[in-house]
Amino acid sequence: HAPEMAHGRCHPEPGDLIEIDRPLYQHWALYVGDGYVINVTPVDEGAPSLSVSTTSIFTRKAKVKKQLLKEVVGNNTWRVNNKYDRSRTPLPVREIIRRAERWIDMEVPYDVLGSNCEHFVTELRYGEGVSDQVS
Known about the structure:
Layout: E1 17-21, E2 26-33, E3 36-42, H1 54-57, E4 61-68, H2 69-73, E5 78-80, H3 93-103, E6 107-109, H4 117-126
Antiparallel strand pairs: 1-2, 1-5, 2-3, 3-4, 4-6
Helix pairs in contact: 3-4
C-alpha cells in the first residue's frame, strides 16, 4: 500500500502548499525549497498539557517559523495540496517566497477562525487568505 502522501507529489516545489494531517486538525505550511517550509506555530506549543481543550490551542499567539518539513511533519502524513489553484491564480514563486520570508520570526495572532495556518499560507500563495476549515 503506497504511503498516504502518494496522491500528492512527494517532491514539493517552492511555493507549494503542504497539508499535514494532525490528530485534531489539518496543519498547513508553505514549501520554500531545500527541505524547508514556513508555517505558523503556537508559541507555547512546547508545553504539552492534557487539560488544554482544542479551542484554547487555537487562540494563542503564534510565531511564523522556517523549519525543516520533516521536523514539522514528524510522524504525521502530508501531501502537496494547492487546492485553490483551480479558482485562484498563484503569485509568481519568487514573490511567494519573498512574501513568506518577510514573516519569519514574527508573532501573529493565532485564531483558528480568523487567521489560521491555512489562511496564512494561502495569503502568501494567492495574495488573499482562504480556508475551507472555517466555512
